[in-house]
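Please check both lines for our workbook:

___
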Amino acid sequence: MKCIPSVFTSLEREAEERNDVRAAGLAKFTQDHRFVMSLHMMCDTLPHLTELSTAMQAPDAIYTTVKPLVTGTLSILRGLQSMPGEAYQSAVQRVKDLQAQGFNIKPPSEQETVKFREKVFNPFMENIVNNLEGRFPDLPLIQKFEVFNTRKFPDDNSTSHREEDIKMLAEHFGHVVDKTLHEWRQVRESIADSGLAADKAMEWVTINLKVSHTNLFKLAAVGLLIPTSTSDCERGFSTLKRVKTTHRASLSPPVLNAILTVGMLGPAIEKVDINSMVKIWHKEKPRRSQL
């Protein structure tokens, strides 16, 4: 948004000095009030979406923090629907300033401004809000896993602390409610003073109580398996880019999956016994070369 005059100038020079048809087309397309207004509109919106995306890319992001982040972002976006941000409000004046600087751009009329608001701004904001709501349909249920967060246990050791949350989780995932509640009451007393966050408390349950507290174990396992952070996805894409190069584009899905699994979850190369692996590989079937 700040460097748009430089973009206009560069495109015009490319079109004039090099007879670049594409640059000429882009210069005409960008020097339009609708382009400038769209740019200002996105400058009000995208920073909030970027902050949400960045927070969810953190390796230690847990689902119990998703609800406040998403609801906060949705609240801001809904506010922008009714009252556009500063950047969008200054868009018309920006077009006038660009025209004053000598660029071939015409400020919008009042009718064109209203039309842009109805045909572009409102649908854009509505689609973003709907898309964000559609991506997190189970936020209220997911938030119930915060029951495992011992840092939010009451100081008075209340015996009924968050039992409604346990009931809802047990019912939703098909567990016996009474047994799950009984197991929760026992475990709650054991971890009350541990100071564990929700994910660490659930990890403790899955490690130590798999046999003795089967219902609560299953709930904790579900809580740990719910994907929240996008860091693993990003790491997977990066690994895939390194593995499946133009020279290895014909790797079969099973082989590619095995390589990606080793690349992402395997031990450090210094700890791998390459010689023993090569010997096993040679024993599987006759090879052209022999050790």
The longest helix spans residues 110-135. The chain is about 65% helix and 0% strand. The two ends are 64 Å apart (CA to CA).
